[in-house]
Amino acid sequence: MNCLEKYRSKLIRTINRDLGAIVATPDENAVHDFRVGIKRLTALYYFLNEIDNNLNARGLLKPYRPLFKSLGNIRDSHIAVHLIQDLDQLNPQHSAIMIKALNSKLGRDYRQFQKYSQTENRLSIRMPTIRATGISERTILRYKPVVLTNLLQQILSTPQKMNDTRWHKKRILLKRYHHKLDAFCFCPGHVSDERELKHITMLEQLLGDWHDRVITAELLQSLPELETTSRATIATMKQQDRLLLGSAKIYLRKYAIWHSGR
């Protein structure tokens, strides 16, 4: 069996198990794990697409994009509720009002997800096997260092001015690089470098915390009933996200220095 097939099979089973759980209830862990699973699946098939341009990974994944986005709305509300609960300096009354509004939105988004999944019959994720792609294990192992190196160069190259859009793109590339590393866990000769994973984990944490605050601020601004109540919270989120990006920039530089010295 192709070494990537073991990874793919396990991933598909986990994704569909989580999707089945979400159909029954908007469980926070299942929603999070499903979305991570889809990101891992995307990284895997994008890698295969770089080997075979005729694979059309984007087209294969396209039917599941609305499902991913629909659950993304639910996930954003989960994140926002937790952030608001963790901000001790908030007015308790305002905090309760915001959480109530977010939970109401979560309920509406979940009902839309259920309607979509029933209408489109998207109750399972199906993707071609590695064998069906015709890409051999030998070819995969030959292309592995090339693809990873090219992706890493995109992550470590930083323009003088980094705006939010560029940071968000870098966050996506970093996750994709991490997911591709994980995909080779069953492949011969692959050894995870714990030192590199520590650098990646720290960067992912900082950029994830930053993005959570950006999303929460945007979400609060989108709810008209919170126009007055959420002002202080949004201001706090924006202060925090600047500090987090400052730290991310420092750690990205450390990661680049570490890589150059390997």
Overview of the molecule:
This protein has 262 residues and is mostly helical. It has a single domain, classed as Alpha solenoid (CHAD domain), CATH 1.40.20. The protein is globular and about 60 Å long. The two termini are 33 Å apart. The model has no long low-confidence stretch (mean pLDDT 92).
CATH architecture: Alpha solenoid
DSSP strand tally: 0
- Output the radius of gyration: 20 Å
% residues in beta strands: under 5%
* Shape type: globular
- Output the helix-strand order: HHHHHHHHHH
Helix content: over 70%
CATH 4th-level superfamily? CHAD domain
- Helix tally? 10
The end-to-end distance, rounded to whole angstroms, is 33 Å
> Quaternary arrangement of the chains shown?
single chain
Low-confidence stretches: none
Supply the helix-strand structural class: mainly alpha
If you average the pLDDT, what whole number results? Answer: 92
- State the CATH topology: CHAD domain
Give the domain tally. Answer: 1
Q: Give the C-level CATH assignment.
A: Mainly Alpha
Largest sheet: none
